[in-house]
Every structure is written in structure tokens, then in C-alpha cells.
Amino acid sequence: MFAEEHLSSEYGEINPQGLVPVLVDGEHTLSQTLAIMEYLEEVYPEPPLLPDDPVERARVRALALALVPDCEMHPINNRRIREYLVNDLELGHETMIEWIGHWNARGFAILEALLSESPHTGVFCHGDRPTVADVFLVPQLDAARRFETDLSPYPTVLRIEEACLALPEFQAASPGNQPDAPQG
């Protein structure tokens, strides 16, 4: 299982919300995934994670928000929600998996439609270079697999994931390459 250092009092001093991720960059401590991604885009603009065109940037942000932690899909499978379902509501592990699968399926169906029907979708979620939407897509798919979501109805989503995972940057960030990553 994951190490869960974010539950420690030491981590609480860094981020009082007790949530991940947190980015410490020099003297600056930032929280919330999208805020961190926007910061990285502005401070470290190469390679760019957002297109130059404002309409295209808005599309990438909308795709990212469908995936990003604390917005649409990710909150359904985060630890706090899972523990509430199993421990407080006593739904049981199988019911929790079914519940997560239901919401994952709805989210991926919407994402598949957005991606497959748009002329702006290329090799990646938007065009032929990764954007912030791709950065959020890959871990969401990893989480969906951990919770036994059937991803076969989403060929465009899976094709984009394959393109992302062919890149060394995505390979290096893969959960299987991280310390304390869940096994199997």
C-alpha cells in the first residue's frame, strides 16, 4: 500500500489540509493539483503543458478538470471517500468497488465522447504533444484499474494513454516506478 505519510503531523505542518499532492519549490509550498500544474506551466514553461491559443487552453483545462483530483472523477476513489463508504456506511469492499466503477464508467464515457468527437484530439488529449489533460489522464486510468473498472469501452482514452506511456517522462512518473507503490 501507499506509505500515507500525508497523515502524519509533520506533513500537516507542510499542508494543513493533509492532502496530496504538495509541491515545495524553494521557499514556496503549493497545494491542490491544478494550482501546482498552473504554477509549473508559468514558472517552468518548457515543455508547455497548455496550448498557446486561449480557446485550445480552455479545452485542455476542461479535459483536465474532468480528471483532476478534487473535481470530477478522482474524488470518487480517494482514500477518504473509500474509508467513509466501508467504515462509516459499512457498505463492504465489493459494494465500494461497484460504486467506484459506476462513477468511473460515467466519467470515462464522457471523456471518451469529448476526445473521440473532437477534431482537436490528436495523438494526445489535445494535439500531438502532451498537455496537462494527459498528465491527469494517466494516473486516473491507473486508479480505475486498481478498482477493477472495465476500460474497454474507451478506445480513444486507451490510445492516448498508450501514447503517453511511450514517453520516458510518463514512464518515470508511473506509479509502478514510485516507492511504496501498490503491488498487483
3D structure, described in words:
This protein is mostly helical. It folds into two domains: 5-42, Glutaredoxin (3-Layer(aba) Sandwich); 52-177, Up-down Bundle (Glutathione S-transferase Yfyf (Class Pi), Chain A, domain 2), CATH 1.20.1050. Helices cover 53% and strands 4% of the residues. The protein has eight helices and two strands. It has helices at residues 9-14, 33-43, 54-67, 79-88, 93-116, 132-146, 155-165, 168-173; strands spanning 22-25, 28-31. Strands 1-2 form a two-stranded antiparallel sheet. The chain is globular and about 45 Å long. The model has no long low-confidence stretch (mean pLDDT 83).
Which terms summarize this structure?
8 helices, 2 domains, mainly alpha, two-stranded antiparallel ribbon, Glutaredoxin, 184 residues
Nutshell version of this structure?
The protein is mainly alpha-helical. The chain folds into 2 domains: 5-42, Glutaredoxin (3-Layer(aba) Sandwich), CATH 3.40.30; 52-177, Up-down Bundle (Glutathione S-transferase Yfyf (Class Pi), Chain A, domain 2), CATH 1.20.1050.10.
* Main β sheet profile: 2 strands, antiparallel
Shape: globular
Number of strands: 2
Distance between the termini: 10 Å
* Second rung of CATH, namely the architecture of the largest domain: Up-down Bundle
Order of helices and strands: HEEHHHHHHH
Averaged pLDDT: 83
Helix share, percent = 40-55%
Q: How many helical stretches?
A: 8
Strand ordering within the main sheet: 1-2
Low-confidence stretches: none
